[in-house]
Amino acid sequence: MVPRERRMNERIRKRIMLRINHRPGILLDLSQTGMRISTAMVPVSRNVRIQFQADDSEFELDGYILWINKRYALQNLKEMGIRIENRPEHFQRYLERIGESADSPDGDAF
User: How many CB atoms lie within 10 A of CB 57?
Assistant: First the structure.
């Protein structure tokens, strides 16, 4: 039996400071459908509001926490996988731009 790849969309590695429910966090990677973040706090609800700035644009996204992993025990940070519930058009354009730069030989996804 061939293992099935669960991820349908390519991840783009990106490090950006963000806010999740008005608390600080770090975006680690993202795709058309979700993102992985690191934060010290675990939201009370699985429904979250994510805000960040990149490329002179501000993004406010609604998300749903799919998983939480206590990865950095000594630093008390958690990683979370979040499904993006809304994808505004300017967010779609941003993903296309950074995806193209990550694919090019001179592009840098960080």
Answer: 12
The phi and psi torsions of 73 (rounded to 5 degrees) equal -55, -40
Tell me, yes or no, if the pTM score tops 0.70: yes
**Cα R_g (the chain), whole angstroms:** 14
Rounded Cα distance, 52 and 94, in Å: 12
Measured in whole angstroms, how far is the alpha carbon of residue 85 from the centre of its chain?
12
Question: Rounded to whole angstroms, how far apart are CA atoms 38 and 28?
Answer: 7
- Taken in order 64, 69, 73, 75, the sign of the CA dihedral is negative
**Residue type for position 19:** R
Q: Summarize the confidence of residues 23-36 as an average pLDDT.
A: 94
User: 48 and 81 in contact (C-beta within 8 Å)?
Assistant: no
Compute, in degrees rounded to 10, the torsion defined by CA atoms 13, 19, 20, 22: 180
User: What are the angstrom distances between the C-alpha of 1 and each of 4, 8, 46?
Assistant: 9, 19, 33
